[in-house]
Amino acid sequence: MVLEYASKDLAKVGLNAIGRHLLVEMKGCSNLNDKETIREMLKNAVNACNATLIDVEVHEFNPYGVSGIAIIGESHLSIHTWPEFGYAAIDIFTCGSRVNPYDALPVFKETLKPKEVSVVEIKRGLLSDIG
């Protein structure tokens, strides 16, 4: 069983979960309404956390707002923006031990220049609940 194999591998490296999911809130941001800026930021964030980029898709809403997702071999990074409120909601979900989701945060901060940032980490697929 694939899940059993992954669980054993993670346990060997001292992880107690299959994935780490960061829920990031950024307030007082700029650069929230440009599709290409968001696309480049997602690519740079993927590189910064040493993830494997599969694809990036970004959609620009009318009159404003952008949603984007970077699909990575280890899960995904996504963003939804509300320029009218200076707010961005970001998810960084990575699996395995090779990728550190926190390494993507400086890229988001550098591009969006938030005045306030909050991060909540959720462990996904807790091994004690699986096996």
Task: Describe the secondary structure blueprint for this structure.
Layout: H1 2-12, E1 17-27, H2 35-48, E2 53-60, E3 66-72, E4 75-82, E5 87-95, H3 105-112, E6 116-126, H4 127-130
Antiparallel strand pairs: 1-5, 1-6, 2-3, 3-4, 4-5
Helix pairs in contact: 2-3
Summary keywords:
S-adenosylmethionine decarboxylase, 131 residues, 4 helices, alpha+beta, disordered N terminus
Question: What can you see in these coordinates?
Answer:
By secondary structure, the protein is of the alpha+beta class. The protein has one domain (about 1-130): 4-Layer Sandwich (S-adenosylmethionine decarboxylase), CATH 3.60.90.10. The protein is about 30% helix and about 40% strand. The chain is built from four helices and six strands; from the N terminus they run H-E-H-E-E-E-E-H-E-H. It has a six-stranded antiparallel β-sheet. The longest helix has 14 residues, at about 35-50. The N and C termini lie close together (about 10 Å).
In short:
The protein is of the alpha+beta class. Helix content is 28%, strand content 41%.
Q: How would you write the strand order of the largest sheet?
A: 2-3-4-5-1-6
Estimated structural class: alpha+beta
Distance between the termini: 11 Å
Our count of domains comes out at: 1
Number of contiguous helices: 4
Mean pLDDT: 89
Q: Which outline best applies?
A: globular
